[in-house]
Amino acid sequence: MTVTVSGASSAPVDGRERLLAEMRRMKDASGLSYGRLAGRTHYSRSSWERFLNGKQLPTRVAVEQLAAAVGEDPSPLLALWDALDTTSRELAETPRDALAAPADSQETGAPRTTGGSRGRVGLLLRRLLPLGYVASGALLGALGAVLLMDDGHSATATPPALPSREVAARATATAPRPGCRGDSCLEAEPQARNCQWDAVTARQTWLRGLQIQLRYSPRCKAVWGRVENGTVGDAVSITDRWGRTEDATIRVGTDTYTRMLSTADAPASTITICGKIPSQHERECTPTDQPPAP
């Protein structure tokens, strides 16, 4: 693929240098500082300094957001990014703290959908395996209690149950490695990236019988919205401080969830989550005193 870069010299350069040169050209032409660029995108000032100084290859989302921030067509930049070799693109989308993962660890660039029955079965097994560990541990504990009682010892000799946090920590320790972290989780599905294993409900509210939850994964540094006990047509949306939004509508059943937003540069407390019941023309958001910035 041949991509023409505005203002580029005739000297041969590799794809990465052409991409960075065009991104720097756009930023310089706009007159935006790193701080103002950060204010118009989901990425921090330090992230943009790393991207544009060539210290870190930007993600595809970052490339698209730069073009949007300066008011230019993102197609030429995205074409340059897509033309990079597979390894470079995978490294750009991989969280930096996962680059040293062993070869047999979970793939960090897991696709949003799994193609073929073999892929679906493999994904299902990976999700069920940690639950098997927890279930087998519980079974062994129950058998131990029975043996102690049969041996003439009182039931009080049974080791006390682990606190719920410790149980959760042990389950998390056996869970698959998360497939993203922070900004690399943007627009990704939480289950496709193994972010659901340590997820907690950071905030919740109710609208009639609709339960609206903001789910947070500490390992993935990302959040997503979820609604339960709803009906077809009910919806949920989440919005970060930069105005980036993810939403989902119940198509079948009684629940649904959104794709993820990053909390790498802003805590989960800055995320606004809303539940909607269009049939009743009703909407409930939390926090109500912190509307998302435009």
UniProtKB/TrEMBL annotation:
Which SMART domains does its entry note?
HTH_XRE
- What are this entry's molecular-function GO terms? DNA binding
HTH cro/C1-type domain residues are 19-77
Q: Where is this region: Disordered?
A: 95-117
- Pfam families in the record: DUF2690, HTH_31
Protein name (Swiss-Prot/TrEMBL) = HTH cro/C1-type domain-containing protein
SUPFAM superfamilies for this protein? lambda repressor-like DNA-binding domains
* Top-rank lineage group of the source organism: Bacteria
